[in-house]
Amino acid sequence: MWKREMIRRHKLGLAVLALATTVAAGTVFAQQRAISIATGGTGGVYYPLGGGLANVLSKTLPGIQATAEVTGGSVDNLKLINAGRSEVAFSMVDAALDAYKGQDKFKGTEVPVRTLMVLYPNQMHVVTIEGMGIEKMADLKGKRVSTGSGGSATEVMAFRVIEAAGLDKDKDLKRERLGVAESVNALKDHKIDAFFWVGGLPTSAVTDLGATPGVKLKLIDHADLAAKMNAKYGDLYAGSTIKSGTYPGQTTDNKNTVVWNILVANAKMSDQDAYNIVKTIFDKKADLVAVHGEAKNFTLENQVKSYSPIPWHPGAVKYMTEHGVKM
């Protein structure tokens, strides 16, 4: 009788211990907060950098599980931020400004977007190959051209470049809406004649195109259009150069236009979360550079308000101010 009572108590003790362990594990699990990072297509730079960012945030910030999401690009990302479906997003400044003001693709909807930090300059590529009869922007007239996937900032900037070149995007082009990887494949198959892509250097999909046997990559100059774009849309763009040799088969410098990329969040993000995210990026910069070389541009010197006219998140301002940045 006594032994049976001891066995019963022992089993009861084990059951209580198991329950306590389950509750504790459930509490830990419940404390894990998911952070969605809206990036871009797999052939660009946002996605690998977003994956690297998700990795360092998950490893560094207790209770955080971050994930990089494949998206259509800046416009989609800003809509995800507005809907509360992503906490952090990559964006070009021009698209973010449209979202903040509620204009163009965001007409009637002002997105409460805030800058976390300035990232790196995005280079507008106007890409074709030998044999398509395209030497300058005017030669795009009548051609089959991809202006970027729907929901991308490539499309936003491409339309502005086309307009500044004196072309009508609807009447003068046979327009497709493809992401950079799809554009490369379509150009290889001669289904399109050229495409627009705005991204960091080098972009893997464009590298793949240049390395394709029997293909001669050509980048079309358009730096002279920056002034016209700024006259209409504000001081967002600048002339730049993609140096020869950046891509396989690229034998001359390409005079192009650039716009800055920024990391953004919703104004509702807590100051502490914003501070921790920015701090982690700077603390773990070497890990991000190992993912993609554009992370070298993640510097305190680039945290300049003129590079991002979108209001800065107070948590980000706190970090920058502590590190000598005048905001």
Span between N and C termini?
A: 78 Å
* Fraction in helix: 25-40%
Briefly, what CATH class of the largest domain?
Answer: Alpha Beta
Number of helices: 11
Helix-strand category: alpha/beta
Folded structure, characterized:
With 327 residues, this protein is of the alpha/beta class. The protein folds into two domains: 32-121 and 262-322, 3-Layer(aba) Sandwich (D-Maltodextrin-Binding Protein, domain 2), CATH 3.40.190.10; 122-259, D-Maltodextrin-Binding Protein, domain 2 (3-Layer(aba) Sandwich). The chain has helices spanning 2-31, 46-60, 74-83, 93-101, 153-164, 180-188, 204-210, 226-233, 271-283, 285-291, 314-322; strands at residues 33-38, 64-69, 88-92, 113-129, 144-146, 174-176, 194-199, 217-219, 238-242, 254-266. Strands 1, 2, 3, 4, 5, 6, 7, 8, 9 and 10 form a ten-stranded mixed sheet that branches. The termini are far apart.
